[in-house]
Amino acid sequence: MSKVGCALAALVGCCLATAAFGETYVPGQQVEKDFRGFVEPFLTTHCNDCHGKDFPEADLTLEGLGPVDEVNADVWTRVWAQVALKEMPPKEEEQPEVIARLQFADWIVAQLKGVLKDKGGFEAQLDPNKGNFVDHDLLFGPLPEGIQLRPTSSPARIWRVTPQEHITRLNELINTEPGFDPQKPGLRTHGDAVPTNHGGELKLYFGVDRITKWQGGTVAYATAVKSVPAVLSSARAHGLENYPDFYSVNSAEATQILGMADDILRYMAHGPLSIAEPYQISDDTKAVMQKWDGDIRGLPTSLVYNTQVVRPLTPVKDLLEAEEVDSTQLQAAVDYVFQAVTFRPPTKQESQAYVQIAQQSIDKLGQEDGAILGLSAIFLDRDALFRPELATSGKPDEHGRVMLQDWELGMAVNHALRYIQPDETLQSAIVEGRLRTKEDVRREVERMLADDSIRKPRVLQFFRDYFDYDLGGYICKDAKALGDTGAGGGNAHYSAMFDATASTDRLIELILAEDQDVLKRLLTTEKIVATPGDKVYYGTRRTQPDIAASLKQEKEALAAWLEEHPNGKAADFKKRNKTNHKVEVAELSGPKIFARVSRRSFGAGSMKPERILATAPEGERLGILTQPSWLVSHSDAMDNHAIRRGRWIRERLLGGGIPDVPITVDAMLPDEPNNTLRERMRVTRESYCRTCHEKMDPLGLPFEMFNHAGLHRTTELGQPVDTSGEIIDSGDPNLDGKVDNAIDLIKKLSESERVEQVFVRHAFRFWMGRNETLNDAPVLQAADQAYQESGGSMKALLTSLLTSDAFLYRTRDETDAPQ
Ligand code: HEC
Ligand code: HEC
């Protein structure tokens, strides 16, 4: 026998031996299994008793299904979901071995990816909403023998910036935001994200910090002011909104960005003169008003700007105001704009290329238009719209992973917390080669986390994505249904909801500032940040007899007043003593604080930063999930959305997963205005629907103690409201059982270690930009440990995540990357 033969024999022998003792499974490695030898027998053993050819359960025949192809891809997708989530085979049946289950699920995903390549591909497993498909107990518990983890890393990739990030970046070019004021830490500050306006729109505004007068009201003002809306698209409303590869930039967006760049560059050069007539810029408001010719509401000429210069003055101004084009000035403007929109200095080649483009367009179009067109091109640079993490330089380690370094690493660290350019200290660390090791990253992250003046809007964005409390203003309410809740009608409700988002933002920041037991406090705080209008939203919807009593009381008070004021008018009295008879308003008091809202001066419609830090009515509220912002975000036009609330708890707190709504299901509740939501939801308790819905609905129904505008209530349709619910199949036996109401439910959940771990999983997803795999188990466990040992510090959790291999390392070769 030759030497090679011997070696082969030994190898075969060794493999047979391991096979006999059970197999080794390496997560992410291609599964060397085939349909006939492994998958079909798996189905025969575990599934076909129930899903055979005759009388199959759920009308689903798996016997004879055959390998994955385009036609049966949908069935295989459902099989994958059921098996990965450990729903099938049913709990009471004999379960497949852990490794066999993992291999079966991996095999399906690999096959679906191959088969659907030309049909848009298969990426469901990468979706953040499917993150929980990875078994929680395997991530945090002991691993069964035979599973061998690989040192983790993330794939090399580019991230498109989010709309908010993009606007915030561009805002830096034309507006000077106020510096951090430790006395008023809630106010909007340089480095915070540009907030949506009072109508929930995300826009970049020009010159609003100089407008001193306008004709007309809020609407006229909003139309007259120069603004450009966010261009980049964002299709997701719920959950994590931004993974790499979710989004690209299409040609229509590119065209719009060029238009935006034109506006921005002209404003950078000329200030309000680029958007107004010279006479409108004056400190003599009256003189300008005299020029107002009749009704010009909503027109750009209906505004008066003061003469202060508040925008940043930059080399772009110098270039455009110069007598003639000077090549040093051109270069300076190019470099300035490049760094402002990409956050790093251009390389020599980049700089030269853009100078050349600008010079050519100046030659063609003249100094002003040419320079502007030339500089506009920089706004479309890849790095102005995407953040690369390609790890093209650097040597792979023995596992094929490359650590990010210098600019890519610095940008990753910066982006983990911020939307604007790296601060000076971080920039010098990058440039001086002091951002290359895990310790370097820890130093910078800890420094930035400790400094309140370094604003960190990404942290707040995580909580928005995680809790989904920022959607309330976008839920269109049926006017009558809204009226019935006792909340203010029409536009007042929508502005109240945008205010509610800002209030919850602020509350989260206050809890983050203390940085102790962060998740638990978020879930169980009795504190609320409140506007005057919140007296109603935190109030209790009155029952019919209470309304009658309130009306009677008003009548008596009026009678008494008329006795004292014989000439008084009843209408005057009512106007002065406005009573919302439908609501027992909450008594809210507490110290004054500020919330971050859009800029002043949307007239009467503008949001006001002044708030109070109050305590919610006792026994009625507990934490974020009972705030109107969250409740309304999880409601619909007519009613509460108990299913979605329950789903939120199942996924974001318990770490469970629900397979997608089958396309054959008509997901509609009966339209029965005289029945409660709970009653109408009886259809989801039918046997087929129940398997999915029993995991969601009983977790959402305890929130029936609130109506769909978020007011507390004790009755519904004249009957005592039923707020009972149940936790089943949570994965934590201490949790399972009945609950009386939302408060009871939340208290239980907030005590659970599992809930805390699920929170860590979501933080991982947000900051790594991908779903966790089994290979990330050590990273998740370290993060969880850091969180626990620090007494629930978000800073400790973040530092752990941002110094993890998953954050620092990239794998360039796609086939090698963990999936
Ligand atoms: C003991 C009987 C039983 C076994 C064994 C069983 N199932 Fe099921 N399966 C059911 C029932 C019953 C339903 C209907 C939903 C429910 O009640 O859980 C169902 C539902 C399903 C569904 C959802 C149907 C749909 O329309 O999307 C899928 C997919 C599925 N099973 C796959 C499997 C797979 C794969 C296996 C083997 C790994 C398996 N089942 C094993 C009883 C079984
Ligand atoms: C395979 C799991 C599954 C099954 C089976 C299922 N559903 Fe659902 N259903 C879901 C999920 C997940 C949602 C949540 C969607 C969301 O987040 O809005 C949902 C939502 C709904 C909604 C709310 C829709 C909305 O957005 O207002 C209704 C109503 C509903 N299902 C009814 C049914 C009925 C009736 C059946 C049985 C005929 C059924 N479902 C079976 C998973 C399922």
From TrEMBL:
Keywords: Signal. It holds the Pfam family PSCyt1. The keyword Signal applies. Residues 738-807 form the DUF1585 domain. It comes from the Bacteria. Residues 1-19 form the signal peptide. InterPro entries: Cyt_c_Planctomycete-type, DUF1585, DUF1588, DUF1592. Residues 404-535 form the DUF1592 domain. This is Planctomycete cytochrome C. It comes from Blastopirellula retiformator. The lineage of its organism: Bacteria, Pseudomonadati, Planctomycetota, Planctomycetia, Pirellulales.
